[in-house]
Design brief:
The complex is a heterodimer of chains A (479) and B (84). Helix content of chain A is 76%, strand content 1%. Chain A has 479 residues and is mostly helical. With 84 residues, chain B is α+β, with helices and mostly antiparallel strands. Chain B has a domain of 57 residues: Roll (SH3 type barrels), CATH 2.30.30.90. Helices cover 18% and strands 39% of the residues of chain B. Chain B has two helices and six strands; from the N terminus they run ββαβββαβ. In chain B, strand 4 and strand 5 form a beta hairpin. The radius of gyration of chain B is 13 Å and the shape is globular. Chain B starts with 9 loop residues before the first strand and ends with a strand. Classes of the chains: A mainly alpha (479), B alpha+beta (84). Strand 1 of chain A pairs antiparallel with strand 5 of chain B.
């Protein structure tokens, strides 16, 4: 049978004393010895289960007495004893080869973690993996192809069929035409979001399975400490370039509450999601200066807000530790499965929201509520130096950030937005409040108070910065 | 060479140079959670430790595990140096 672990004698004494105190009802569930050990390690769950028992103060007394007799913490002593046994068993059963083969991927590991080679590699991976593959290929080539197919082959057919069978204009608009469920909701989901999110998840699974992500974290840790985060946060932030909603969910892997709040804020304010990124990159790449200004401004805001948040948000400074697994050649089936599962989750979550957004827009237009809001936004647009036609874009941007960006795309195609306006609109929309789904997940993860604070800050900041940027660009006469 | 007197027996990991090897003499951090995490990753007193890199993060090898840690955590690992 497996050898029983023998803990240092003060602990063994404490275990038998606690065992005696524990009542009968514990006999069936788990052994009394385990309960006693959990109590000695200050396990919160076990403590709360036993707190009301009459003998609990006695247990407390035994624990503190035992602790007083030991030089190190009880948890430490218990873990140490276990580990020693595990090592002894391992020594027993493993055979050591005289010449340990040199790990052949060692040089690759060294290249990826050494600052002189690691940082250029990091930049190359982000440039080719994220920008070229997701942005240019997914967000450009694939989106253009599928979107073009929708515009030329599906939408006209749907419009005609709906016009033929449905006699009421209102219902026709619900299903088809400019903002219909099929022609807008499904088209955005399939033509814009699907290709971008698929390419992003593919790349992310590839990086994840190769073991590169922990190396990315350790390279970034020092830099991230200046914005109140740790290297660990790079994972949700990069994921945020794919989908802010999913990234907000992933912030729960961060160590401290403070780090989670800062990461959530940065995700809501500065990190554009892939749908948005794809459209903005496609839009701005025709104007290199505009693209340069947009990325410069976004970087500056990311660093600036991060730095201030690191000073303002209360709590302990974050710590960083992470196991570095060996680099592996990822297996294709595993990557495809992961991508598939993520996509399935994503679409189960967002397709209903897309349809819901289409319906909301339909209701809003039908009741005239949207006209009121749009008219309210029009002065704000003028304030930002934008044409009043941009107002609906911001309103729809609230339903999904990419709706807004995609709406901007339409405006630019019809020649309404010029260079400077394009930059101001792109910056303001990127900063603007995240989509409904992300807001919902912020509520779930951070609670109402933090979410409201972040949301109000984001809206005020987005519009004020848009205003300042417009003034600045006008003075500098860049365009 | 004969040396006399005595040298410092153990020092915090963040004081040591790259490629230093040693034995973990103690793990001390004011935050008990960090100590627990290190234990869970197999960083225990008595284990052999190698410091592989200091910048941008500390990289240590303990047993067959490789771990990245920041300066603060590195400081909480006290090492008895075997070779530089």
């Amino acid at each position: 049978m497996s050898p029983q672990i023998l803990y240092p004698s003060p602990i063994e004494t404490a275990i038998s004393r606690i065992e005696l105190l524990l009542s009968e009802r514990w006999q069936d569930a788990i052994s009394r010895r385990s309960i006693a050990l959990l109590l000695l390690q200050q396990d919160r769950e076990t403590r709360s289960q036993l707190q009301r028992e009459p003998y609990f103060p006695e247990i407390e007394r035994i624990i503190s007495e035992t602790q007083a007799n030991m030089s190190e913490s009880l948890t430490f002593a218990i873990a140490q004893t276990r580990h020693q046994l595990a090592r002894a068993i391992e020594e027993d059963v493993t055979v050591h080869l005289r010449h340990q083969p040199v790990v052949k991927d060692e040089w690759l590991h060294q290249l990826t973690v050494h600052p002189l080679t690691g940082i250029p590699i990091l930049i190359l991976i982000l440039y080719f993996g994220i920008y070229q593959f997701v942005g240019v290929f997914g967000g450009g080539t694939l989106v253009d192809g599928i979107e073009g197919f929708f515009e030329s082959s599906i939408n006209p057919v749907v419009n005609n069929i709906v016009a033929a069978i449905v006699p009421w204009q209102a219902i026709r608009d619900l299903l088809a035409n400019d903002y219909g469920i099929i022609t807008l909701g499904i088209r955005y989901a399939v033509a814009i979001v699907l290709p971008i999110v698929t390419t992003f998840f593919l790349m992310f699974s590839l990086l994840e399975d190769s073991g590169y992500l922990p190396r990315l974290s350790l390279l970034m840790d020092r830099a991230f400490k200046t914005i109140g985060l740790s290297g660990r946060s790079i994972i949700p932030l990069i994921l945020g370039l794919g989908c802010g909603t999913m990234a907000t969910l992933v912030t729960r892997t961060l160590e401290s509450k403070r780090e989670r709040i800062i990461a959530t804020l940065l995700l809501a304010l500065t990190i554009p999601c892939s749908a948005q990124l794809g459209v903005i990159l496609a839009l701005l790449s025709q104007e290199p200066t505009a693209l340069l200004i947009w990325s410069g401004v976004m970087m500056a805001i990311f660093l600036g807000i991060g730095f201030v948040a690191g000073k303002v948000v209360p709590g302990e400074a974050s710590c960083f530790y992470m196991e570095i697994p060996p680099l592996r050649l990822p297996s294709l089936p595993a990557i495809l499965t992961k991508t598939y599962v993520r996509l399935k989750w994503y679409f189960a979550e967002i397709l209903p929201l897309f349809i819901f957004a289409s319906i909301l827009i339909w209701v809003g237009k039908l009741t005239g509520l949207f006209d009121v809001i749009v008219r309210g936004l029009e002065p704000v647009m003028l304030w930002l130096g934008l044409p009043t036609e941009a107002a609906p874009t911001f309103l729809y941007g609230f339903f999904r950030r990419d709706y807004g960006a995609a709406g901007m795309f339409d405006l630019h195609s019809s020649g309404i937005l010029t260079g400077q306006q394009l930059v101001v609109a792109a910056v303001t929309l990127t900063l603007f409040i995240p989509c409904i789904a992300q807001l919902q997940f912020m509520l779930k993860e951070r609670g109402i108070k933090t979410t409201m604070a972040i949301a109000i800050f984001v809206v005020c900041f987005a519009f004020s910065l848009g205003y300042l940027l417009n003034q600045l660009l006008t003075i500098m006469e860049i365009f | 060479m004969l040396t006399q007197g005595f040298s410092v027996q153990y020092s915090p990991l963040d004081y040591l140079g790259t490629k230093t090897q040693g034995t973990i003499a103690a793990i001390r951090n004011k935050d008990d959670k960090i100590v627990k995490k290190l234990l869970a990753m197999g960083v225990h007193t008595g284990m052999h430790i190698t410091l592989e890199q200091r910048f941008p993060s500390f990289i240590i090898r303990v047993g067959r595990t490789r771990i990245a840690i920041d300066k603060d955590i590195a400081n909480s690992i006290k090492v008895r140096v075997i070779s530089h």
